[in-house]
TrEMBL record:
Start and end residues of each tRNA (guanine(10)-N(2))-methyltransferase TRMT11 N-terminal domain: 38-200
Organism: Acaulospora morrowiae
Annotated Ribosomal RNA large subunit methyltransferase K/L-like methyltransferase domain residues: 210-327
Descriptive protein name: tRNA (guanine(10)-N(2))-methyltransferase
Cellular compartments per GO CC: cytoplasm; tRNA methyltransferase complex
Localization in the cell: Cytoplasm
Keyword list, A-Z: Cytoplasm, Methyltransferase, RNA-binding, S-adenosyl-L-methionine, Transferase, tRNA processing, tRNA-binding
GO molecular function: tRNA (guanine(10)-N2)-methyltransferase activity; tRNA binding
EC nos: 2.1.1.214
InterPro entries: DNA_methylase_N6_adenine_CS (IPR002052), RlmKL-like_Mtase (IPR000241), SAM-dependent_MTases_sf (IPR029063), TRMT11 (IPR016691), TRMT11_N (IPR059073)
Region named Disordered: 453-477, 500-522
Length: 522
């Protein structure tokens, strides 16, 4: 190998402590997307892709670590490995594993055990890469490592842009937050032949910053694409979003060939303004004929006939945070007018601009209705993929809604500190029988009490013990909106207090500790 060519090859490879994720098969290594906000999503997506492509995938769950981007998986053929990863968002690369160890002596020993596979690539153009997780690789270090594999005897040209075969050396230093600097040596080293890479370019294609029309609840491209994978979106399937908003899931599912449609109680988000709407996004992504239509109605008062219509339901239910959760009805039914209101001699409810009265839609009620709907209208094997917001300290696994004909596939958390949202995937495995209903924490939570328990005033007369017992009965997403804004108001008060302390200190107006606490009653 030519040293100058090697230096050119690695000149742009050094940098900050890299965070990458890879994978390997049959002895293949999967390089997953690095630890970050989506580390819990990586395995569910990989399992879903295996089901889509009918690939027999196996791995030792003990080998999977959330803070490590590497996983050894077993796949029967190289062709299956390519199919598995071709549309992956959270698995970056997959390699045929040639050797691994705690040091390079162990790696080279394993590679040399099978010299027969080197001959296939003797005269092909090739490329070597050296990357590190949790550390930085200098160009000199990379050249030294590449030279240590010179016994492979490759005689082809080094090609940086379009090699016929690519090899990767992956060093894992780990991420220890208590260490001031990376350890001097990696704790595990992998060497293998690159088989295929994931399709993270799609994130850029569907990037919200490049989208013609978005709203304040539009789901980002990466998670929308992951949800499409977990919904098993493929050509010919019919996928529905009952809280469609600006249609993010319609586009990512349709990208993979599925027919998509959505509905929403508020048609204003669908219609948009001027030339920007859900339709303009369909035109931007050239998804005519795949995104079928968007409709305006309430999921609780829908027009669907009793039938198994949908192969998947993919949605982000309203939390009542950025967009208020509403359902048709009146807060106080007793105030319903006895005589229809007339506008210009026309009953208000018959006018084209009529907007029916709505009432708040508590998150717990949303989930039960969503699961009931899914059980009735999904085909057997169809999936429900949705987001569940929850308070971190109050969440338990019992909060996930259940239904006798639906099974839980995965439950992955995206944490935001005091609150989080969980991506829940369920699959319908049997027919929905009459009398079967969705439940949430069924043994201890009665949803008939929702309305009466929404205000603290309704709990007057309860003892402290009673209140504690009732609090324990409620799921972490109960009254999520109220709890979310209580967090925000508390954070705002703390920021204001910090600012006052800073200004007083800057002016020398006394001891900053004299500033009253935000919790003090004034």
């Amino acid at each position: 190998m030519n040293i100058q060519s090697l230096r050119k090859q690695v000149s742009n490879k050094s940098g900050a402590r890299a965070r990458v994720t890879q994978a390997m098969f049959s002895e293949f290594k999967a390089r997953l997307i690095p630890n970050g906000p989506h580390e819990e999503f990586r395995l569910p997506e990989l399992e879903s892709l295996a089901k889509i492509e009918n690939v027999r995938l196996s791995y030792d769950i003990k080998d999977y670590k959330r803070d490590c981007p590497f996983l050894i998986v077993t796949i029967e053929t190289e062709e299956e490995a390519e199919r598995l990863i071709k549309r992956s968002i959270l698995t970056r690369n997959i390699y045929e594993l040639w050797g691994m160890g705690e040091n390079y002596e162990q790696v080279h020993e394993q590679v040399k055990e099978k010299p027969g596979r080197w001959a296939r690539y003797e005269h092909k153009s090739f490329k070597f890469t050296v990357s590190a997780f949790g550390a930085t690789c200098s160009s000199d270090h990379q050249v030294h490592i590449i030279n240590s594999f010179s016994y492979l005897g490759f005689k082809g040209d080094i090609s940086l842009k379009n090699p016929q075969v690519q090899f990767g050396v992956l060093e894992d230093y780990g991420l220890d937050p208590y260490l001031p600097a990376p350890p001097p040596n990696p704790h595990t080293i992998y060497f293998g032949r690159l088989i295929a890479s994931g399709n993270r370019d799609l994130i850029n294609k569907y990037n919200l910053k490049k989208r013609s029309y978005i709203g304040n609840t539009s789901m980002d491209a990466e998670l929308s694409l992951v949800m499409a994978n977990q919904a098993l979106a493929t050509a010919g399937k019919l996928i529905y979003d009952p809280f469609v908003g600006t249609g993010s899931f319609l586009f990512t599912c349709a990208h993979h060939g599925a027919y998509t449609m959505g509905s929403d109680i508020d048609g204003r988000q669908i219609r948009g303004q001027a030339s920007k709407s859900v339709k303009s996004n369909v035109e931007q992504y050239n998804l005519h004929g795949k995104v079928l239509d968007t409709l305006v109605f309430d999921i609780c008062h829908h027009p669907w006939r009793e039938n198994l219509w949908f192969d998947a339901i993919v949605t982000d239910p309203p939390y009542g945070v950025r967009a208020g959760a509403k359902t048709l009805g009146r807060k106080d039914p007793s105030k319903k007018p006895l005589v229809p209101k007339l506008i210009d001699g026309i009953p208000a409810h018959k006018r084209e601009d009529y907007y029916p009265p709505t009432k708040p839609y508590e998150m717990s009620e949303v989930l039960v209705d969503l699961l009931e709907f899914s059980a009735r209208y999904l085909v057997i094997g169809g999936r429900l993929v949705y987001w569940l917001p929850t308070i971190v300290d109050e969440y338990s696994s019992a909060d996930i809604p259940e239904h006798p004909c639906m099974k839980l596939i995965s439950n992955s958390e995206q944490n935001f500190g005091q609150w989080s949202r969980r991506l829940v995937t369920m699959e319908k495995f049997k027919e929905n029988l009459k009398g079967e209903h969705a439940t949430v924490n069924a043994k201890s939570f009665d949803y008939s009490l929702l309305a009466s328990q929404k205000k603290d005033e309704s709990r007057e007369g309860e003892t402290d013990s009673d209140k504690q017992n009732n609090d324990e009965k409620k799921p972490g997403h109960y009254l999520f909106r109220e709890k979310y804004f209580s967090f925000k108001s508390g954070e705002k008060a703390k920021r204001q207090e910090t600012w006052i302390r800073f200004k007083n200190k800057e002016k020398g107006d006394g001891n900053p500790s004299d500033v009253p606490s935000s919790s003090t009653n004034q």
